[in-house]
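Class, look over these structure tokens:
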Amino acid sequence: MNAGDAQSTPTSFEELAASRRQWIDDVLRPWCRQATQQQLRDAELEWLDIAGRVDVQATLWTWAWERFSVLTHPEMAGVNESHEVQLRLQDGTVVQGFPDSRESIRGTLVLVPCRTEPAAPRLRGPYSVDDVAAVQLVSSPPDA
């Protein structure tokens, strides 16, 4: 072992915890933001070994949807249901509605249409994370 290796190895629990947080922030979370749905599902099978004892929905799938920042909230797991969004899919299709966190599982997004659309189906989707090209807000979230 050379001196460089000794310096990079944590010597206290605090250093170990900081190293783990840095790896999650610098490697794991960014990977989730760009991985395909199939890669994410493969990771889901080994998530306990990769990420530790954490909720897959609160980490893996939330981080995957962070590639579209309007779909997530930094203090909530899953997709943010509080505002209407417009999706542009890879094929050019545009759909609009409120994300449904309970229905949006394992790399798919389901939208609930606005109530002013009486003829609209109850749910729209599911849309794969791979099929979504862009997401934008339709309306601003209410003032807190």
